[in-house]
Amino acid sequence: MDHKHLRVALNDGHSIPVLGFGTSIPSKLPKSKALEATKLAIDAGFRHFDCAYCYQNEEEVGLAIRSKIADGIVKREEIFYTSKLWPTFSRPELVQPALEMSLKKLQLDYVDLYLIHFPTPLQPGENLLPKDDHGKLLCDTVDLCDTWAAMEKCKDAGLAKSIGVSNFNRRQLEMILNKPGLKYKPVCNQVECHPYLNQRKLLDFCKSKDIVLVAYSALGTSRDKLWVDASSPVLLEDPVLCALAKKHQRSSAQIALRYQLQRGVVVLAHSVTEKRIRENMQVFEFQLTSEDMKSLDGLNRNFRYNTADYFDGHPSHPFSDEY
């Protein structure tokens, strides 16, 4: 089967490619890297692109996609594009304008998936992380069910084909699912997920509600010092992953990606290197045994690279619950 067409059904009738390309780039690199990497990813066969307002590179990613459409390499309908609503736009009246702002940067008519990026409303304004004079985070009191109702309107307006959430824990997901007058369920919950944080309980819960789990930081992280502790363990150097890579004559990144696919998780691969981008697309060419999967399950240590400590003190911080 052509890997470009491996998709999983969403609960609203649409479908999502099981392997996606993450477009956030380390802060030390120029934004032009996002343009270059997205073009390389399209050439390698990626059709699912994950971006966000807060990555501040939607112009570059949009330009890469449009240039490949103009070259006749892909059609718009073959591309699955995700963007995300940052918490400073949580107020219902700001949701659609925020999506329209992303679409303007992208110069696209719609996104395939729009996510609430974090369940932590912040006061509106120019700053991604608004703080008072004492450096205290400026939280906002917004009912996420009202934010969700505004997301539903974006879907009805055709600006987003599907809508979902990101970084929500079980309790926060249930709050949306139990919303009076709910029109559309979230199609997915995008969370950090890798062998050190396999999210088993959250995955089981999402599956029971027909919600797809999408894994970010599936290869560990780019170790961007802005948000990752430099002393964090390097996932791709784990001896178990390396032994399986040797056994299958693959890279440890390919093993980590394949692990998620076999668990029924949609997985995002992230790289700015052409060789690795191409390698990551080869995860459909081999299979892990049930013993391999068991070994990888055994690596779980509930370790987060992204602790979201920039939201510390927020009453809705999603990672204070067990899952």
From TrEMBL:
A molecular function (GO) term: oxidoreductase activity
Keywords, in A-Z order: NADP, Oxidoreductase
Domain of life: Eukaryota
Catalytic residue list: Y55
Segments forming domain NADP-dependent oxidoreductase: 19-300
InterPro entries: AKR, AKR1C, Aldo/ket_reductase_CS, NAD(P)_OxRdtase_dom_sf, NADP_OxRdtase_dom
Binding site for substrate: H117
Matches recorded under CDD domains: AKR_AKR1C1-35
Site (Lowers pKa of active site Tyr): K84
PANTHER family named among the record's database cross-references: ALDO/KETO REDUCTASE
Family: Belongs to the aldo/keto reductase family.
Protein's name in the database: Aldo-keto reductase family 1 member C1 homolog isoform X2
Primary gene name: LOC101719086
